[in-house]
Amino acid sequence: MTDSFDKISPTALLVTYARQFSDIPYAAEISELVNAQAIAEQYMAEGIEELKHFAPVMEARYKAVNWLLATFECRQILELASGLLPRGMVMSGNPEITFVESDLPLMIGQKRELVDRLMVTRPNLHFAAIDATASPSQFPLNADYFRRGEPIAIACEGLLQYLTLPEKQQVFANVRQMLQQYGGVWITPDLTTKQRRSQLRKYNPATERILQAIAQNTGRSTFDNSFEDADHMQQFIAEQGFELQSFRLSEMLDQLSSLARLGISPAQIQPLLAGTSIFALTLA
Ligand SMILES: C[S@@+](CC[C@H](N)C(=O)[O-])C[C@H]1O[C@@H](n2cnc3c(N)ncnc32)[C@H](O)[C@@H]1O
After folding, report:
1. Where are the domains of the chain?
2. Which of 84, 117, 151, 189 would bridge with 183, disulfide CB 3.0–4.6 Å?
3. Protein residue with least CA distance to atom 24, ligand 1
4. Contacts of 84 (CB under 8 A, 6+ apart)
5. What CATH architecture applies to the domain 2-283?
6. What was the pLDDT predicted at 42?
7. Which atom from ligand 1 is nearest to the alpha carbon of 81?
8. Please, is 261 exposed, middle or buried when counting C-beta atoms within 10 Å of its C-beta (0-12, 13-18, 19+)?
9. CA count, 13 A, side-chain hemisphere, 4
């Protein structure tokens, strides 16, 4: 099974490349160090132009997670499927924050090496090999780096859309166990419906082509793994024992530095962002 998940890992380089069009700290350095462009090109049948709309959505996703982490005043953060995200490097600059990056063993090993090349070791930045779908859970339930009695935030961008319903269910169970112990919130933009994806197909065929290439390379269709509709999603979340607050990614519109670099107007990207949400999940 880990083999099957490992096939998802190269997509981390695709989104890393997309983020280098933004002003996100370390985005350009990381993209260059891992030569993300070479991998990204494999996902773009019609050249780099294909990324034009995908890149601002990835920037919005990253900034929206940060915005909610700040809104919920989280000081203990566990990030799932970190890939090559720079969030841990940035947020651990605040010594009051404990940040744990996690991913599959191969990917988190690579990430740790990369972070070591870019900055000095910080005592409040940790790395953990975690398959988010594992049962029994591999989450750091009793790790000494987390303070008991203080809530934690679990952040996760770019994982759940690849997972089947039973795999998602296991991630929800693992997160639930963690939040039962510490309290806190789970922040993720990874929940979507077939309805929304169909709208995206019509509105932005280039992004749809990228998603098709991802499905081919990973053997996992993010469309098939989406919820049928909003009711299906709500019902699933309630059954897993969570409550949901949702926010539109369009809230990030005025912070998207990649728009100017890519020559896109806010009006062009607005419909794409309006159809995408980010969620804060808490225990019901
Ligand atoms: C699209 S990438 C997103 C990476 C990162 N979150 C970002 O936005 O740049 C998907 C990530 O999920 C990780 N992954 C795949 N299966 C996983 C699993 N079962 N548990 C934890 N991480 C997993 C991959 O290694 C990869 O880093």
Report:
1. 2-283
2. 151
3. 9
4. 12, 13, 16, 30, 34, 36, 111, 114
5. 3-Layer(aba) Sandwich (3.40)
6. 87
7. 22
8. middle
9. 10
Closest atom of ligand 1 to CA, residue 79 = 6
Q: What is the C-alpha to C-alpha distance for residues 50 and 144, in angstroms, rounded to an integer?
A: 45
- 112-122: per-residue pLDDT in tens? 999 999 999 99
pLDDT digits (tens, 9 = 90+) for 133-156: 999 999 999 999 999 999 999 999
Find the Cα–Cα–Cα–Cα dihedral 104, 106, 110, 112, rounded to 10°.
50
Place of tokens 């380089």: 13
Ligand 1 lining (C-beta closer than 6 Å):
5, 8-9, 11-12, 15-16, 80-85, 103-104, 107, 130-133, 157-159
Q: Name the phi and psi angles at 131, rounded to 5.
A: -85, 110
What is the reported pLDDT for 169?
98
Check residue 148 and report its DSSP letter: T
Q: Give the C-alpha separation, 195 to 190, whole Å.
A: 15
Per residue, the 3-state secondary structure of 164-198, as one string, reads: CHHHHHHHHHHHHHHHHHHCEEEEECCCCEHHHHH
Residue 254: pLDDT above 70? yes
For residue 1, is pLDDT > 70?
A: no
For 154, other C-beta atoms within 10 Å of its C-beta total 26
DSSP state of 86: S
- The rounded Å distance from CA 266 to ligand 1 centre is 29
If DSSP codes are grouped into helix, strand and coil, which group holds residue 281?
strand
Going by C-alpha positions, the residue among 32, 33, 40 that lies closest to residue 12 is 40
